[in-house]
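Thread amino acids onto this structure.
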């Protein structure tokens, strides 16, 4: 009986493992009960639970003729940088760049939202993180989970667990974090500005846009090609009009399957030995700061642009410059409707929202070019 007891997981469960089981339970509660990013937090939480159940062999590397654990092999989807770009393929097929093409100047708002990435990179360096680690932490400010995972896998794989949890948690908390910042930085008059509808972008422009963006970004920031190129390829499948089946597959089966595998593999990086450190709390705090600065940067640049001659621009759409598509755009729309229930900003906010996806991917490529 004693030998049987020693062979069970109960005999090998440490306090770190028990704490991480509690963390996994909180993630599952947030996803299932509070509905915070459930499509990702459920797999991440369940993966974190499994990796902290002792002696299950899921992450055991191969030894001699013995094969390794299941998730040891699945984790190569992250180590070899396969899963995040495939997520971008599905996102590209789901994304409508029409609002950005109708009002190209909103691309600047997507760039302005990267202020939080740069500011947090500097802050993390001052707190003792190495350059690659600080870059992986700073990219949380873009509110783009796949890009955060991609960059941390390349620059700081040992920090992937807390970075992924932080990125997806703040993506889920967009409706909580952003509105107070938006109200504090704008006046009632500014929040009530109505924007004019533009003519829809012609089909030739929608088709040429992903091709041109891929070429330009690949030439300017070559390391961003994996993310930008696959994102734009997915969008080309959507817009070209001759690959409907491929577009539907990318939007549904592909992105759903990769989301499951990516979430489970990220959760499996959250072992108690690597997650329960002071640095984890620092990353969570820096992630919140990064997201807040990104929101503020977009709003402030939006205020500046609203005062320039030309068509009216509501500065609230600057907050949508983070990559949380389409949640950030809906938040900008809802805050505007608090002042004027007939003010419809959703489609206007989608311009900087999708621009933020491009901006965050380019920022990640710039970090790779400078630090890898």
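Threaded sequence (372 positions):
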């Amino acid at each position: 009986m004693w030998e049987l007891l020693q062979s069970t997981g109960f005999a090998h469960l440490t306090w770190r493992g028990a704490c991480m089981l509690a963390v996994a339970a909180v993630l599952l509660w947030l996803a299932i009960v509070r509905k915070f990013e459930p499509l990702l937090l459920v797999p991440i939480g369940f993966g974190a639970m499994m990796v902290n159940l002792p002696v299950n062999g899921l992450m055991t590397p191969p030894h001699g003729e013995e094969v390794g654990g299941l998730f040891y092999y699945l984790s190569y989807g992250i180590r070899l940088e396969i899963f995040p770009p495939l997520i971008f393929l599905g996102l590209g097929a789901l994304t409508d760049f029409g609002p950005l093409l109708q009002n190209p100047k909103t691309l600047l708002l997507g760039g302005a939202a990267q202020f939080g990435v740069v500011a947090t990179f500097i802050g993390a360096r001052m707190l003792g993180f190495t350059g690659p680690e600080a870059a992986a932490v700073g990219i949380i400010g873009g509110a783009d989970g796949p890009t955060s995972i991609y960059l941390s896998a390349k620059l700081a794989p040992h920090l992937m667990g807390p970075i992924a949890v932080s990125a997806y948690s703040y993506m889920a908390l967009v409706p909580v974090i952003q509105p107070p910042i938006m109200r504090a930085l704008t006046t009632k008059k500014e929040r009530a500005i109505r924007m004019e509808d533009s003519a829809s972008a012609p089909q030739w422009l929608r088709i040429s846009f992903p091709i041109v963006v891929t070429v330009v970004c690949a030439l300017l920031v070559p390391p961003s090609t994996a993310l930008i190129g696959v994102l734009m390829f997915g969008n080309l499948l959507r817009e070209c009009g001759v690959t409907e089946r491929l577009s539907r597959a990318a939007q549904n089966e592909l992105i759903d399957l990769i989301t499951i595998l990516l979430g489970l593999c990220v959760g499996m990086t959250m072992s108690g030995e690597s997650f329960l450190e002071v640095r984890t709390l620092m990353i969570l705090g820096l992630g919140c700061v990064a997201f807040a600065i990104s929101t503020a940067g977009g709003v402030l640049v939006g205020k500046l642009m609203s005062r320039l001659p030309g068509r009216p621009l509501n500065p609230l759409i600057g907050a949508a410059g983070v990559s949380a598509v389409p949640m950030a755009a809906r938040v900008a729309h809802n805050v505007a409707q608090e002042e004027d229930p007939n003010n419809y900003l959703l489609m206007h906010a989608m311009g900087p929202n999708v621009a933020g996806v491009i901006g965050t991917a380019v920022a990640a490529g710039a970090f790779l070019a400078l630090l890898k």
